[in-house]
Amino acid sequence: MPDRQPSLLEDYDTYPRIEEAFQAALDESLNPRGPELLYEMVASLRLPQGAAVLDLGCGEGKQSIELADRFGFRVLGVDPVRRQVGLADGKLREAWRPNRRLNALVHFQLGVAEALPLTDATVDLVWCREVLVLIEALDAAFAECRRVLRPGGCMLIYQNFPTDRLEPREAELLGANGRFQVERMEAAFTEAGFAVVASLELGSEVGEYIEERTGEAGRRLIHAARLLRAPERYIEQFGPVAYDIMLGDRLWHVCRMIGKLSGRVYLLRASD
Ligand SMILES: C[S@@+](CC[C@H](N)C(=O)[O-])C[C@H]1O[C@@H](n2cnc3c(N)ncnc32)[C@H](O)[C@@H]1O
User: Fold this and answer.
1) For residue 57, how far is its CA from the centre of ligand 1 (angstroms)?
2) How far apart are the CA of 32 and the centre of ligand 1, in A?
3) Helices assigned H by DSSP within 3-72
4) For residue 119, how many other CB atoms are within 10 A of its CB?
5) Angle subtended at Cα 16 by Cα 11 and Cα 19, rounded to the nearest 5 degrees
6) Residues 210-228: tens digit of each pLDDT
7) pLDDT tens-digit profile of 35-68?
8) CB neighbours of 258 closer than 8 A, spacing ≥ 6?
9) pTM for the whole thing?
10) Cα-atom radius of gyration of the chain, to the nearest Å?
């Protein structure tokens, strides 16, 4: 990035001559990679139909169902929040109406990463998207993933990490998301016996991809502006805890778009 200050001439003479063309160039997509990349990485593993997959921190189960539908995997989605597991079950019922095969392939269960409800060496792939930041005992979580994987099994992680553009005050507003350190995660999975097969820095790509298709990042930006300008309005209606959660979430999306958070994918292999 240039550290030179523009001169008056550049500000009011040179730059205005190219401004429109510059803007037009910026209106062109840089063809960001989106969530599909994760499925492409799974496809590259060439696991057979019926392979056992753990969707760790499955949330509402969307990706568990997708993995079973695309690849014919047997998927167990695990999440500690009862409501999430209930919603995931509901999604599955909706999904399998036209495709009953999914009902046999996908199951959801309450559980935590630190004590997985699975026996040793029974899983071919652990899929883990945007969960690790919420886990205090990372070492225990990776040890558990290693335990349940068959030797040579893989773990696919997608996670956003703070960059050095994130200011301490912003990190505070983002809570755990603002403090999660890439080095800490790498040390934990190395200690547990994982080797990195591939790692990709995605920066803002997934955010750009979603914005280009849905306008969702722009919507979150205006939400953040309203939350910051009129906190009382929302605190009065929804309470301070909900306000903080909502603000953290909206800022998370803004930070991801402007290089204060950066998405990364890791494909790990469990040592034999
Ligand atoms: C941001 S959501 C991501 C959900 C899903 N993986 C996705 O990408 O849509 C994080 C999920 O991690 C779950 N979670 C939190 N702590 C966990 C833990 N210790 N073990 C497993 N899952 C956990 C939460 O309940 C939540 O559903």
Assistant:
1) 4
2) 25
3) 8-9, 15-27, 36-44, 62-71
4) 9
5) 115
6) 999 999 999 999 999 999 9
7) 999 999 999 999 999 999 999 999 999 999 999 9
8) 165, 204
9) 0.93
10) 21
